[in-house]
Automatic annotation (TrEMBL):
<dbReference type="InterPro" id="IPR044855">
    <property type="entry name" value="CoA-Trfase_III_dom3_sf"/>
</dbReference>
<dbReference type="InterPro" id="IPR050483">
    <property type="entry name" value="CoA-transferase_III_domain"/>
</dbReference>
<dbReference type="InterPro" id="IPR023606">
    <property type="entry name" value="CoA-Trfase_III_dom_1_sf"/>
</dbReference>
<keyword id="KW-0808">Transferase</keyword>
<dbReference type="GO" id="GO:0016740">
    <property type="term" value="F:transferase activity"/>
</dbReference>
<dbReference type="InterPro" id="IPR003673">
    <property type="entry name" value="CoA-Trfase_fam_III"/>
</dbReference>
<dbReference type="Pfam" id="PF02515">
    <property type="entry name" value="CoA_transf_3"/>
</dbReference>
<protein>
    <submittedName>
        <fullName>CoA transferase</fullName>
    </submittedName>
</protein>
């Protein structure tokens, strides 16, 4: 991996302070993306247990849960108890200084603590404040707890996933949470741009349900246009053929012939030009109508060779194709291709720790092991440092630590 250039341009959110009052996935994922863009993210955690995901193992890297490590690079950890008056005062002081506040307390909790938008904006009028909830403030029972798997079901995502003759299937990753995190990061960046232009902050509201509904894209629109529930199509595509996985002699392959020209190229590579001329398959609409027959013909042709060989031939012909890979295989393949899919950070306990990079890249040299990228923090690793920055005296900090209202977990 290539070291970062000393004269590389500043990260786009350099100088932005984010108070991260969120936990679990959607909020921490969003604030990690903000940290990836250069923001100084202070993660506020309970001094004893910290973020829930710290306990979500196995698997573990040493004593650190892989789940937590996936969502918290680039942050500093401030472990204080917001039920303690001085701990709460410290968090309020952090919010008063922050450019961005992100929270996913259950509806009403932030307001009871004096950390709601109105309270924070009274001391910090330009703040960009983001509330994350499961179902949104206008939803019936807005205090209803929102978990990814519940929202996958409620949003229709689950109903569209799985084989046609099977039941609805949970998506393998917490997609509703991930979509929410992406929406939070995008909305916060947009609000920061507006603040630069107008000086005005504002209250951004993002819910898991609305994020998942917006993620239905063409299936949501199809349902609105037709008034009919979309059917599950498994590995295939409801409106394009061939656009699915196929078995080969030694593994599964994905072929996405998204238009008539690509379909003809596919037929040529398969040595089946007759399939391109057959009136049942000439146009995509015809292929959709005769899906089962065509898929059987393509499957038979693909059985003659292995996935790697077909992949090379189809790629050379310009036909979109890919192997069905396992997670570790996919990461290693991307890295080996020069895609810089991973980064290495220096973790205070684990040493060199490999992490998956964010999905975006900024122009310039790709960073390698970079001491400027903070590893996922230990619980309370930066408590004293942050409390000093907030103006607390050494005596007050020591008192917080002595009574357990704050924690400073030393680097071992």
């Amino acid at each position: 991996m290539t070291p970062a250039s000393a004269d590389a341009p500043a990260a786009p959110l350099s100088g932005v302070l984010v108070a991260d009052l969120s936990r679990v996935l959607a909020g921490p994922y969003a604030t990690m993306l903000l940290a990836d863009m250069g923001a100084d993210v202070v993660k506020v955690e309970h001094p004893d247990r910290g973020d829930d995901t710290r306990a979500w193992g196995p698997p573990w890297a040493g004593d650190q849960a892989a789940y937590y490590l996936a969502l918290n690079r680039g942050k500093r950890s401030l472990a204080v108890d917001v039920k303690d008056p001085d701990g709460l005062a410290a968090v309020r002081a952090l919010c008063a200084r922050a450019d961005v506040v992100v929270q996913n307390f259950r509806p009403g909790t932030a307001e009871r603590l004096g950390l709601g938008y109105a309270d924070v904006a009274a001391d910090n009028p330009g703040v960009v404040y983001c509330s994350i909830s499961g179902f949104g403030p206008g939803h019936t029972r807005p205090d209803r707890p929102g978990f990814d798997v519940v929202v996958q079901g409620e949003s229709g995502l689950m109903s569209t996933t799985g084989e046609p003759d099977g039941g609805p299937t949970k998506i393998g990753i917490p997609l509703a949470d991930v979509l929410t995190g992406l929406n939070v990061a995008a909305a916060v960046c947009g609000a920061l741009v507006r603040r630069t232009a107008t000086g005005q902050g504002g209250h951004v509201r993002v819910s898991l349900l609305n994020s998942a509904l917006s993620g239905l894209v063409q299936l949501g629109q199809s349902a609105l246009v037709t008034g009919v529930e979309p059917e599950r199509v498994g590995h295939a595509h409801a409106a394009i053929v061939p656009y699915q996985t196929f078995p080969t002699a030694d593994g599964d392959l994905i072929i996405a012939a998204g238009n008539d020209a690509l379909y003809r190229k596919l037929c040529a590579v398969l040595g089946r030009p007759d399939l391109a001329e057959d009136p049942r398959f000439c146009r995509n609409a015809d292929r959709v109508a005769h899906r089962a027959v065509l898929v059987a013909e393509i499957t038979e042709a693909l059985s003659a060779r292995g996935a790697e060989e077909w992949s090379a031939l189809l790629t050379e012909a310009g036909v979109p194709v890919g192997k069905v890979r396992g997670v570790l295989e996919a990461i290693r393949t991307a890295d080996a291709s020069g895609d810089e899919a991973t980064m290495t950070v220096d973790h205070p306990v684990l040493g060199a720790l490999e992490l998956v990079r964010p999905g975006f890249r900024f122009a310039g040299p790709a960073p390698g092991p970079d001491p400027e990228v903070l590893p996922p923090p230990l619980l309370g690793q930066h408590s004293v440092e942050v409390l000093r920055e907030l103006g607390l005296s050494a005596e007050r900090i020591e008192a917080l630590l002595e009574r357990g209202a704050a924690a400073q977990h030393p680097v071992r």
